[in-house]
Amino acid sequence: MIRLVGIVMAAVASGLACNALLAVDGYRSCNGSECVSDARADTSGDPCLGGPSINGVCQPSVLIGGVGSVNGLVSDGTNLYFGNDTSVSFCSIVDCPGFKAPLAQVSATVTSSLSLDPTMHLLRFGAADGKLYKVAAQGVKATPTSFTSTPGSPTSIIACGDHTCWIEKPQNGSPSAYTCLTIKCAPEKLFDFGGSDLATALASDGMSVFAAASVPFEGGIFEALVTCPIAGCNNAPTPMGFDLNVRGIAYYDGFVYWTTNSNQQTGDLARCAPPGCQFPQILQTNLTAPGDIAVDATGVYWTSSANPGRVQMCPPGSCKDSLVSIATKQPSARLTTLDDARIYWVVPDNGANDIMWIAKPR
User: Fold this and answer.
1) How far apart are CA 150 and CA 324, in angstroms?
2) Model pTM?
3) Which of 11, 17, 79, 229 sits a CA distance of 20 to 30 A from 53?
4) Sign of the torsion formed by the C-alpha atoms of 144, 150, 155 and 156
5) Which of 334, 290, 247 is nearest to 6 (CA)?
6) Rounded CA gap, 62 and 12, in Å?
7) How far does CA 123 lie from the centroid of its chain?
8) What percentage of the chain carries pLDDT values higher than 70?
9) Which of left, alpha, beta for 118 (phi over 0: left; psi -120 to 50: alpha)?
């Protein structure tokens, strides 16, 4: 089975010398230079990108502290955007370190989820008004599209090509996957999940959506990885393969990746090439409570929310044979997101939340 879990990292003091000739966990040393915990510093040649280091190994640190209930986190490589109980806010990544919320606001409307589409526009739902908002990155004021969401609580919003896809969780009844054309959104239901514990995440290749749902098969009901064209599947998604307790799911470069996790115990990481997932490739087994997952050309990243929690990754091409712990002691880590150079996640901190970051392995 496969699981992905949120990753949490503790803050590390600035000014630690990087004096090791060779760092562990795939990080290069700082070659004797000083790694300061300030992203505004000159980071040329610094694999930690201005973040702290111990013996040449990059360490996680707090990017933004004291944030409320973070329910969306995305980066465009220049700015970091997050949604909380009061607003959607952002800051320039080079100016974020050590800042306290509130920061500059994209909108004061409460958000229920947050995503970034291929045109570098933020997609989000207003939790209070149920409207879909599309806003250009870097703080341009949001204009809602002309529709009201179906009754329920929209979450797990993602860009699906020129559409927006999301999960609706009604107060009563089974959650469902929905889609609409982003420029003028009229919601259309794709399929029901068949159980609230299955509606954890969506992924898309721009033409179809991928998820875990309960589906009929040979006279029974089974939990399966399913796919449904964005154009619709008449509430009958196609089973790709069968697996239990799917928690995180992502799509990248022709493969669907997912994690499994039953009651915060051990789980696995796997992938397959749609549409055939009957015999998935198992990348990692016996992971500790894996949850959220993100994938790009540099590797597969996931969080583990079990105490003490961690952020882990495996590099492309050798994921089955390599497991790297990027950050440890990150309890209840979640909402992993990536840009070209950094990894971000959220951890609880005395009733609030801290947004953490670390440079990607090089």
Assistant:
1) 42
2) 0.80
3) 79
4) negative
5) 334
6) 8
7) 14
8) 72
9) alpha
Q: What is the pLDDT of residue 136?
A: 65
**Six-digit token pair at 141?**
């004021």
Which run of H or of E encompasses 34?
A: strand 34-35
Length of the chain: 362
- Provide the terminal-to-terminal Cα distance of the chain, rounded to the nearest Å: 29
CA angle 362, 345, 79 (to 5 degrees): 80
Question: Higher pLDDT residue, 22 or 208?
Answer: 208
162 in Cβ contact with 170 (< 8 Å): no
Q: 150: exposed, middle or buried (C-beta count within 10 Å: 0-12, 13-18, 19+)?
A: middle
Q: Is 158 left (phi over 0), alpha (psi -120 to 50) or beta?
A: beta
Report how far apart, in Å, the C-alpha atoms of 255 and of each of 38, 142, 202, 275, 325 are: 36, 33, 14, 10, 23
Structure tokens at 32: 């004797």
What is the rounded distance in angstroms from the CA atom of residue 65 to the CA atom of residue 49?
A: 19
Strand pairing category for 61-67 and 99-100: parallel
pLDDT in tens, 268-285: 899 999 887 878 888 998
Distances (CA, A) of 192 to 160, 195, 350: 18, 8, 37
The residue among 164 and 350 whose pLDDT is bigger is 164
Closest-CA residue to 81 (of 119, 13, 39, 136): 136
Residues 135 and 142 sit within 8 Å (Cβ to Cβ): yes
Q: What is d(CA 326, CA 303) in angstroms, rounded to the nearest whole number?
A: 10
Contact 236, 222 (CB under 8 A): no
Q: Summarize pLDDT for 157-172 with one digit per residue, the tens.
A: 888 988 989 888 877 7
Reference 272, options 280, 264, 261; nearest CA is 280
